[in-house]
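[stage:ingest] chain + small molecule (magnesium ion)
[stage:ingest] validated
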Amino acid sequence: MEKVTIKNITTQILDIPIKRPHQFSAVKVSSKSFVLLKIELSNGIVGIGEGTTPGAFWNGETVETMQTIIDRYVSPLLLGQDPVLTEALLQKINRQIRNNYFAKATVEMALFDALGKWYNTPVHQLLGTLHKDKIPVRWALASGTPEGDIEEAKEYVESGTYANFKTKSGKEAPDDDAKRSIRIAEGIKSHSTIGIDPNGSWDRLTTMKWMDAFFDAGIDFLEQPLQPQDVEGMARLAAMKKVPIMADESASSVEDAMRLAKENAADIFSLKIHKAGGMKNTIKVAGIAEAAGISCFGGTSLESSIGTAACVHAFASIPNLDYGSELFGPNWLLDDPVTEPLTIKDGYIHVPDKPGLGIELDEEKAAAYTRQ
Ligand code: MUC
Ligand code: MG
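[stage:predict] done
[stage:export] tokens:
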């Protein structure tokens, strides 16, 4: 029998509008961009991967950098190679290309989708079997105003879509931001709870000053209050034992996770398959967390159903996903480039059970959203 090899690799950038403008710490966005990667095997099977990031503000990678890295540097390393040796191929890519974790995660996703389709097996079985078949999902309140956020939260609780939330923060001065977050928490207290995510925009002293008030307001967690490099500051906040400290940007790679665990710098790790460089690395991060008694939260880079499916396959295999997830991407986009989008029902997202990622690309939609 002829050996199966990687025959063709293509990338395209999609720009898809979102349902309402989303206010991050540094930028407000009204559309989301994705790199759509297709890896075709010589047996005709095509694996798809999706690269996306919250924005250039997050860690510097963008869809444009991902596309360049994949087209110019990754593709020549993969073409003609045996896809069964996926781990060896990923190691080779790591040796020749530093950082660029989001790009590497996109490549891993497409290879696993291809392998799963070929073996007629869902990706979660290739990753090491399931721990759960559905995951709780939180929505991120980021309308830009506290009134808008309170109203949005109440509507979602009433409709039964989401039970809990996090608020995007960091746009205002830290004191104003803290007051605003408490106002939102108080505004929905009888219905629900929130975490706060300032994307590293606050300083140590202001954050310390507000920890008692956050505790009194019933805040679930404080996510990445300090800049990613300030691991010592995160450790000081965690030592206060008020509100659980979640590391997001600080806990990107497997090595970051090890350092944070050693320095007691987080109570929770936000997992993100893109920042970690893929699903397998994400599971390694969760393993370090498990050994250190740290809980995990299934974070998002705001993926469509393609990337969200990859997140669900990885997160559903993790035993210590104690804080649920924020895999609301498919519900946040105005459109989804797949034939059957993933849905969030009664606060949960279910694990796809078809081969590969379990998601079928809608070629017409993908073409319509492709950047010219
Ligand atoms: C982040 O930093 O957590 C996740 C939800 C959201 O609104 O932003 C992202 C990125
Ligand atoms: Mg975050």
